[in-house]
Amino acid sequence: MDDKTRERTRELPGIELSQEDYKAMQNQIAAVTQQLSVAQAIAAKERARSEELSNLVNRMQADFDNYRKRNNDTGKKLKEDGICAVLEKLIPQLDVLKSAIQSITDEKVAEGVKMIYRHLLEILTSFGVEEIPALGQQFDPNLHNAVMQTKTNDPTKVNMIVEVYNKGYKLGERVLRHSVVRVAN
């Protein structure tokens, strides 16, 4: 090869290129590199957008789960409130039946009213209603309603319930009706 040819060509391992071809190839490499940079920037932007959308979906799923739980809790609370409202209306009927039992002189009629009284108690028990212990217990304003007081000389009997006028009932921890009592002081 002569000197002139060597000037015009650039030697690469196993390839000979002219300077024009070499510059054209360099320009193509620069263009591809620039396109690659742009594509990488777009990919990074789309990756960030994808993560943002993924986070949004996760937040929306969590919000929906919270909504569903709140809705279930609200439904349970409304159901419990409805049951309690009905039970609160039934409880005074126990007092009416008890008074009727005490005032009925005909034993057969009294036995029929006692049967109704027992069935009503069974219904209340089936819903989980419990009688609030009162007689001989310490007075608790959360469970008992004191309407009278009695003097006592025994210091161990202070604030003890000595008489129950109306039984109290509760459903779980919820008081349906306070016990109406007389307390020693």
Oligomer: single chain
* Biggest sheet features: 3 strands, antiparallel
SS-based structural class?
alpha+beta
| Percentage of residues in strands | 15-25%
Overall pLDDT, averaged?
Answer: 90
Helix segment count? 3
Report the helical percentage: 55-70%
For the record, give the distance between the C-alpha atoms at the N and C termini, rounded to a whole number.
Answer: 128 Å
Task: Provide the spatial order of strands within the biggest beta sheet.
Answer: 3-6-7
Shape: rod-shaped
Order of helices and strands: HEEHHEEEEEE
Number of strands: 8
Q: Which stretches are low in confidence, meaning pLDDT under 50 for 5 or more residues running?
A: 4-10
Radius of gyration, in Å, reads 44 Å
Summarize the structure in words:
- With 185 residues, the chain is of the alpha+beta class.
- 60% of the residues lie in helices and 21% in strands.
- The protein has helices spanning 3-8, 19-103, 107-126, and strands spanning 9-12, 15-18, 129-132, 144-150, 161-166, 168-171, 174-177, 179-184.
- The strands form 3 sheets. A 3-stranded antiparallel beta sheet has the order 3-6-7. The chain has a 3-stranded mixed beta sheet with strand order 4-8-5, with no helix packed on it. The chain has a two-stranded antiparallel sheet with strand order 1-2.
- A hairpin with a 2-residue loop joins β6 and β7.
- α2 (19-103) runs antiparallel to α3 (107-126).
- The chain is rod-shaped.
